[in-house]
Design a protein that fits this description.
Helix content: 55-70%
Strand order of the largest sheet: 1-2
Number of strands: 2
CATH class of the largest domain: Mainly Alpha
Oligomer: single chain
Strand content: under 5%
Number of domains: 2
Distance between the termini: 20 Å
Number of helices: 9
Largest sheet: 2 strands, antiparallel
CATH architecture of the largest domain: Up-down Bundle
CATH superfamily of the largest domain: GntR ligand-binding domain-like
Shape: globular
Structural class: mainly alpha
Length: about 240
């Protein structure tokens, strides 16, 4: 996240907290045009600030209705970029609590449609790696998110999905706020881990699927830790 985007998100948060932007009793915010004018910025820049607060779960964008505050009083938050690098590793700890068990549930209860969607993510990642295109890293990150989200969706547990969505948003926000070297990313290795997860789920072996997901999480923590340290962060 850029310093400019973070600063604007802080300003928007401050305006809302201090009542400098009028919010309806239902929690609806003014139009983008009015808020942009109040903050003295363009609408595209305002949307970036709104996206940050949405990632924190403070705002909700509702189709054809507008932008709403999730709570009448804003909780105190620490903005991305102000987070210590260890925050990313703490998020991984939470993921390790929920994702192995989610894989176990899906392995034991999946449908053909579930496997089609999860398998499509695997195929997309394989094609991207083979293409060696310049934007490979961002595309793989996108399909990595989809892969894990598809597994979570296949649990059919709406509360688990909501928890995961919150954790996933926090992870994406933390990872974009920390600028660290990624020369050592091993795409083939990461893909292999995902493929093993898919095979275990397809086989219907819940214990194996949970075990492989846990191994994948642990390997991801090691990769993130190594990259942070090599970039000069203390964790």
């Amino acid at each position: 996240m850029t310093d400019r985007r973070r600063a604007l998100a802080k300003r928007l948060y401050d305006y809302l907290e201090k009542g400098r932007i009028n919010v309806s009793p239902e929690g609806k915010l003014p139009s983008e045009r009015d808020m942009a004018a109040a903050l003295g910025v363009t609408r595209p820049l305002l949307r970036q600030a709104i996206a940050v607060l949405e990632a924190f779960g403070l705002l909700e964008i509702r189709d054809r209705q507008g932008i709403f505050m999730q709570q009448h009083e804003l909780p105190e938050i620490v903005f991305p970029g102000d987070w210590p690098p260890s925050m990313m590793l703490e998020i991984f700890q939470v993921r390790m609590m929920i994702e192995p068990e989610a894989a176990r549930i899906v392995a034991e209860n999946h449908t053909a449609e579930d496997m089609r969607k999860i398998g499509d993510s695997i195929q997309q990642m394989a094609a991207i790696i083979e293409s060696k295109r310049e934007d490979m890293e961002s595309l793989l990150a996108k399909w990595n998110r989809i892969f894990h989200a598809q597994i979570m969706a296949a649990t059919k547990n709406q509360f688990l999905c909501r928890i995961y969505e919150t954790v996933s948003r926090a992870y994406e926000t933390a990872s974009t706020s920390l600028v660290f070297r990624r020369e050592e990313l091993r795409f083939d290795e990461i893909f292999s881990e995902h493929h093993r997860i898919f095979e275990a789920i397809e086989k219907g072996d819940g214990d194996l699927a949970a075990s492989i997901v846990l191994e994948h999480m642990q390997a991801s923590v090691k990769r993130a830790s190594d990259n942070l340290v090599s970039s000069g962060f203390r964790i």
